[in-house]
Amino acid sequence: MSIVLTTQCRDDVGLIAKVTGLCYEHNLNIVRNNEFVDKAGERFFMRTELTGNVGEQFLPQLRNVLPDGAQVHLHGNEKTKVVLLATKEAHCLGGMLLKQYENAFNVEIQAVVANYDTLKPLVEGFGVPFHLVSHQGLTREQHDDAMAQVIEQYQPDFIGLAKYMRVLSPQFVARFSNQIINIHHSFLPAFIGAKPYHQAFERGVKIIGATAHFVNDELDEGPIIMQDVTQVSHADSAEAMAKMGRDIEKVVFCKAIQLAAEHKLFINGNKTVVFA
Amino acid sequence: MSIVLTTQCRDDVGLIAKVTGLCYEHNLNIVRNNEFVDKAGERFFMRTELTGNVGEQFLPQLRNVLPDGAQVHLHGNEKTKVVLLATKEAHCLGGMLLKQYENAFNVEIQAVVANYDTLKPLVEGFGVPFHLVSHQGLTREQHDDAMAQVIEQYQPDFIGLAKYMRVLSPQFVARFSNQIINIHHSFLPAFIGAKPYHQAFERGVKIIGATAHFVNDELDEGPIIMQDVTQVSHADSAEAMAKMGRDIEKVVFCKAIQLAAEHKLFINGNKTVVFA
Amino acid sequence: MSIVLTTQCRDDVGLIAKVTGLCYEHNLNIVRNNEFVDKAGERFFMRTELTGNVGEQFLPQLRNVLPDGAQVHLHGNEKTKVVLLATKEAHCLGGMLLKQYENAFNVEIQAVVANYDTLKPLVEGFGVPFHLVSHQGLTREQHDDAMAQVIEQYQPDFIGLAKYMRVLSPQFVARFSNQIINIHHSFLPAFIGAKPYHQAFERGVKIIGATAHFVNDELDEGPIIMQDVTQVSHADSAEAMAKMGRDIEKVVFCKAIQLAAEHKLFINGNKTVVFA
Amino acid sequence: MSIVLTTQCRDDVGLIAKVTGLCYEHNLNIVRNNEFVDKAGERFFMRTELTGNVGEQFLPQLRNVLPDGAQVHLHGNEKTKVVLLATKEAHCLGGMLLKQYENAFNVEIQAVVANYDTLKPLVEGFGVPFHLVSHQGLTREQHDDAMAQVIEQYQPDFIGLAKYMRVLSPQFVARFSNQIINIHHSFLPAFIGAKPYHQAFERGVKIIGATAHFVNDELDEGPIIMQDVTQVSHADSAEAMAKMGRDIEKVVFCKAIQLAAEHKLFINGNKTVVFA
């Protein structure tokens, strides 16, 4: 079984040599390595798949040879923990539950939190806890706070918005900073906001898409993780586009979560680095 | 050899029966038929590939059975005539010239008009007339008028903007209404305007694209004909995206012109109907 | 709600006019029409979406105007009935169950028949009957006959092999002639037979795929319905290809069943006609 | 401007550390790095983009730290030299000539050798030498030898078969071992041999493709470099498929040559390693 080392820091000369040299000293074998230097931003990103036994001295020594403020993490084979938020639509949520059932990725869906109980039977049918947190009679902040309390008992690595159809408050976004992954039903930055398939139909585009992105305080403006598209024609109504789009949303959302689970995903300002 | 009949008119009951019935009466055999009804717009579009001899009475009789104002056209096997406008970039223009050289489509490139002479050797190497119409010292209207005079001696069916990098005046657009096809180097409606690849890079998208569209008075807002995309990553600079994008632009532009040449393309308000 | 008329018969002149003319006489409005003539095979195929009330005289009159032996069917909005066969793998089966749960297509999964009980909880979690028909101690013919008896009580329109990993006997195939749809985990005709992903890995291909096809007596040789592909690289092991392939298999299988359910699929000798 | 270092050798521990460590000692900055270990074959492949001044001691020192028999090369910014072989079809050849004209890749097309003079005007229009080496009256070996003599005066890095429609003799293949890149008009290993589009039509596939591969002594069996596909339908004749296929062939062939020119392509037994 392999270990994944992720490194990100200020760019400098010799970083690959320093990291891989230390691995060599520690008798760690590199199975796969990816690195990226953002020249403009002067940031260095690396993902290293290793085999061997990582001793206690490895990380401290690694920090020693890297620039100040370097973020280094070792990830074993434990599953990445995810809580999913949903509303009423089943496709992205069901896609995730099925993937977990198939053992198709290294994710543990710890729980689903939804503001309606529509999807409860689906979720519980897969043996996953379902929490109804209705927004009825609550302010956005109160509702988000109620959800956050449920979520925090699970200490998830990531929160996936599996077609959660409400805008999250800045407080919620800040509380789970860099942890929230959304699926937007358009090919961003086209068709930001509501009813993107209707916008796409009105504009007469010939391709529609979906975008997985991290959530920040600007609606549909967070770092893009993954996108995919499908062809449409004049004969497709907005409803037909929405139906075709759901297949894309499901695939893109599951793959984005999988990238996160495999530690292949880094946030770099308003962009992502993805070692696919 | 087949004949193409194109029909567009106000929607009504029995239109397919009326057109195909008349074809049957005239001993015309239908090889391929496509139709589309825009319910909201109440418009009917049909493309019919026929074999047989079309007599003089056919079109008048057809107009008789169709709603008032119907547009019907018979297209034989003569090549579709196209004049291309260019500036300095070779890829879309070269793609078209090569397609013609390969006999890959039923298009005659009558001439190329450009505001620089950069591409003259390429164009003349393919035996196509090249007209330099410099914009130096002219207002936009004067320059467009000078180009229009060159173009009009060719009486083209369509004008293709093969990376013509200037905005056309409303007068020019009106003069060649519904005849001008542009290639825009983004996946519209994302990244309207200048430097779309730089915009795409800044936004951190994971897919870039190109869009062929008819030109109207709103910049990059005309009816979309065709779009295609390609994947990019964090490692691709704006320049790398532009380079990858040029391959997409070339393919999309050539295919859009080919659709027009095969009479598979109808304008429907701000959209197109494409019988691909 | 619309009705679908499917027509297939020997080719002849005026067939479109005859069918659409009769629709017009019966005050049936054509919403969408697709037709195809196989010139070499002299066969005519048409799918017509209609609105209006179809009287009892329509089909007899239609048969009267068509060549002898014409097959004509009217399909209302009732769901297409499907029984799925499975073994141990969840992805194609789960994909179908989830699609049904989402109301994403007009299919009723009547039951699942499997030779292991592995997938029983998944199937029953979606409220679908699960029948275990073990092959232990039975000849292939006996086992197939036992499955056929279970299937026949449901009178399905189609039988979907959702990764059913045994070869079916000619008797079974004949019993459900033109009704059995399989998903093969390669881009046919490449890599017929066992372990296609290992074959693909050994050959060093750069794209892998999946193929949905009707089953006939030649292994992996039946009429192809749909195919899709994904890119792979030198870094992907046979196991990684299999994992990526499962996503393609799931999508292709569900779409093939959907085409059948929407009456967009015709068998034409060893090929299919698909009005997508 | 960057330098590319390519390394391939027997696998061993610490290879990345050794190579990147030596770069660091020599004050060479790594812009981009890719590596791959073929575990089964015990081979290590690495491509390193560097900036800085590489002194004379670098390569000898590098060979010293690597396993015996390591192949290491430094590639500056000089263009990769290619001779193209052709017959009568223009699309792949024209695609390459146009790419060179656009300055779209770092390739110098030194000459074209063809067994007909059909393409002479196209080639010379782009200012590239054209050599007619007719096969009339020659044995295959004599013809191949005549071509080889023309080719050898150019000392090309690669020979591209731009739809050269004859089988090459084993002597020719051995003479230019690992240097010959072919474009085959099918999605290999489907439809090996003659008339693949007719084979594809007969089989009724729904996707066709093209494959660029290195040539060895087994027809269409050499290491695959790149593949791409496009969708087809029941309505596409073999001729229509061939026409659509030519667009794919052109793109795949040009990209395969580009990969070679950018030193992103390694042969690994009967497979390739491609750092795309």
Automatic annotation (TrEMBL), chains A, B, C, D:
**Biological process annotations from GO:** 'de novo' IMP biosynthetic process; one-carbon metabolic process
Q: Enzyme class, one word?
A: hydrolase
Q: In which pathway does it act?
A: Purine metabolism; IMP biosynthesis via de novo pathway; formate from 10-formyl-5,6,7,8-tetrahydrofolate: step 1/1
Where does the ACT domain lie? 4-77
Question: InterPro entries, from UniProt?
Answer: ACT-like_dom_sf (IPR045865), ACT_dom (IPR002912), Formyl_transf_N (IPR002376), Formyl_transf_N_sf (IPR036477), PurU (IPR004810), PurU_ACT (IPR044074)
Active site residues per record: 220
The protein, known as: Formyltetrahydrofolate deformylase
What is the originating organism of this protein?
A: Pseudoalteromonas rubra
